[in-house]
Design brief:
Length: 85
């Protein structure tokens, strides 16, 4: 069985983006919520600062959408290559 790489990339990008968005928005409301998670993302995503402003939330979400999409696309591609054997 082959995976649809494009669909997997879109789905994983959307889910990772939604996870980061929801955590970052909750952190704006409750400043201690998800702080370690967001600090970890800030150490990986250049230009992202955990939980300071709405702009930072959008920057982190944008990075997460791209990161999740690329990761899901690579996962689907590798799976399809290995499943042929």
């Amino acid at each position: 069985m082959r995976l649809d790489v494009k669909a997997l990339a879109l789905a994983t990008g959307f889910l990772w983006g939604l996870a980061v968005l929801s955590t970052a928005l909750a952190n704006l409301i409750w400043p201690t919520y998800g702080r370690a998670f967001l600090d970890g993302l800030a150490s990986v995503y250049p230009g992202y600062h955990a939980g300071r402003t709405v702009t930072d939330v959008l920057v982190g979400t944008g990075y997460a959408l791209v990161d999740g999409g690329v990761g899901g696309g690579l996962l689907g591609y590798i799976y399809n290559c290995l499943s042929r054997r």
